[in-house]
Task: inverse folding
């Protein structure tokens, strides 16, 4: 099962990266998604909420929420810059 899940992550992750590199609109979408996710993770950290992971006995601690919020805010900054601020360059055909 681990091999199948790893293969799925590689395939879908690779497809997402290709779409993000080629599509400004997709980078704009990712910027919004990372902003919301980072904000929610930061809120969970400030509120001190531990989140149980569905179907397991594991719990996401507030410290892990803080680390995830930092990563998502960095990804938000990158995708915001490349999607909204940076002007697309034309490629000669």
Result:
């Amino acid at each position: 099962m681990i091999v199948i899940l790893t293969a799925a992550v590689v395939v879908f992750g690779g497809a997402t990266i290709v779409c993000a590199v080629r599509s400004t609109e997709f980078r704009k979408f990712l910027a919004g998604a990372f902003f919301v996710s980072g904000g929610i993770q930061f809120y969970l950290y400030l509120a001190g909420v531990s989140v149980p992971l569905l179907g397991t006995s594991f719990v996401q601690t507030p410290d892990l929420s803080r680390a995830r919020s930092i990563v998502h805010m960095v990804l938000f900054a990158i995708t915001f810059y490349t999607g909204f601020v940076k002007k697309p360059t034309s490629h000669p055909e």
Remarks:
- Residues 24-47 form the longest helix (24 residues).
